[in-house]
Amino acid sequence: MSYSMKVLEDTKAKNPGQPEFHQTLTEILPTLQPYLDEHRECEKAGILERLVEPERQIIFRVPWVDDSGAVHVNRGYRVQFNSAIGPYKGGLRFHPSVTLSTIKFLGFEQIFKNSLTGLPIGGGKGGSDFDPKGKSDREVMGFCQSFMNELYRHIGADTDVPAGDIGVGAREIGYMYGQYKRLTGLVDGTYTGKSLCYGGSLARKEATGYGLVYFAEQILSSLKTTFQGKRVLVSGAGNVAIYAAEKATQLGAKVLTVSDSSGYVLDPDGIDLETVKLIKEKQRGRISEYVKHRKGAEYFDKGSVWQVPCDVALPCATQNELNEDDAKVLIKNNCLAVAEGSNMSTTLEAVELLHKSGVIYAPGKASNAGGVAVSALEMAQNSGRLFWPFEEVDKKLQGIMQNIYKQVSETAEHYATKNDLVAGANIGGFVKVCEVMMLQGII
Ligand code: NDP
Ligand code: 2IT
After folding, report:
1. Is 181 assigned a catalytic role?
2. 10 Å Cβ neighbour count for 73?
3. Which of 72, 249, 326, 437 has its CA 20 to 30 A from that of 350?
4. Do the Cβ atoms of 427 and 415 come closer than 8 Å?
5. Distance CA 78, CA 191 (A)
6. CB-defined site of ligand 2, < 6 Å
7. Model-level pTM greater than 0.70?
8. pLDDT in tens, 186-220
9. Residue 179: enclosing H or E segment and its boundaries?
10. Ligand positioned closest to the Cα atom of 113
11. CA atoms within a 13 Å half-sphere pointing along the CA-CB vector of 98
């Protein structure tokens, strides 16, 4: 058995009941073998055994009181996975489905993603099974303050810098950063995705979605085409989805769909983003309300966006939202590319099918790295007490996404096949982390 397969089997056995973590290990570890064959010293140094074991996992109680006076207890997590190349960096997810397995899969992916950005950030992730949906601002504040009462002692500008993810946006970050400041007395920018008026970076809100489209633009360019006139499917209607749809539209594409966990909207005239922003960013409403604002649009509470014929698919909601049956429909409809905005959007079976059928598939750790990249730029601005204009951050983001595509596609060509962006992203992200782990000794 190869080194990577052995570590895969051992790690799965050692971490039972963590299906999402097993899935990311299964996707990543075997693809590293060609590099490990060339670099036998990695096995001797136990690189993989150390990589799959988080440096630290923090699990804590988060008690809070709702508006009726009832007491609730949620579970909080921060998994500090790997600090080889910089402070732990990664978002916090608040969603009822969150378990240790979810946070470990996201944290493991983050190690490779952050390395691909070329910036000095390690991998971490956290969150809670708390559901902010339907809660009052006071309840969300109470929860965030309680969450910080424990988390604050584990984070810092040079140790671990959290950010947003599903269910954590500017409101939650504001409440958490406020409490962090109160408990530590520090105003050191620990947290990214902050509002602009207290240290946030311009273009951070847009960064993941715009970055995704900049990455997909590179894929289309390799096929000698552009976004102009393309039919694009976007799933989700949150931060990543909205700004992916915005940039694709700016580049001349027609975005046909958006969705949330209740259903999806098809607008044959192209999704109107002002309407989506009003419903989702201002009213915190459901996407079904879209059809009240736009004639000709239809709402479906069954099925998925992937049934709609398209040229490019951009999943931007959550993990495993695109399965084998969806992949079959995309292939039948001659879709050119699937680029992930969400993390691990696509099941392993669907990825294999897309790859075999020649649909170019970009894994999230490469194509959605724009968010964390601009987070690292926010950290840089905070430590320099600087504030860069939108155009400057956006230009840097474009350069970073182009570099990631180049690095990933060249690595794929060297170690696997030209369009195997999975192998390219995994090996591309691994090399730097591995080299640093070798240099820093057995820790
Ligand atoms: P948001 O909370 O802003 O939006 C999430 C969207 O996805 C909502 O429309 C939500 O619908 C939908 N969704 C969430 N969970 C499910 C589910 N179980 N089934 C169906 N739909 C679901 O989150 P983001 O836009 O920030 O994140 C979206 C994805 O992008 C996540 O996978 C995240 O990890 C990834 N990502 C985010 C980055 C960022 O900077 N924010 C950076 C890189 C990746 P509903 O309202 O009904 O729950
Ligand atoms: O998955 C991700 O990369 C994020 N949620 C963003 C992390 C960050 O630190 O900006």
Report:
1. no
2. 10
3. 249
4. yes
5. 14
6. 89-91, 113, 163, 165, 192, 343, 371-372, 375
7. yes
8. 999 999 999 999 999 999 999 999 999 999 999 99
9. helix 170-184
10. 2
11. 29
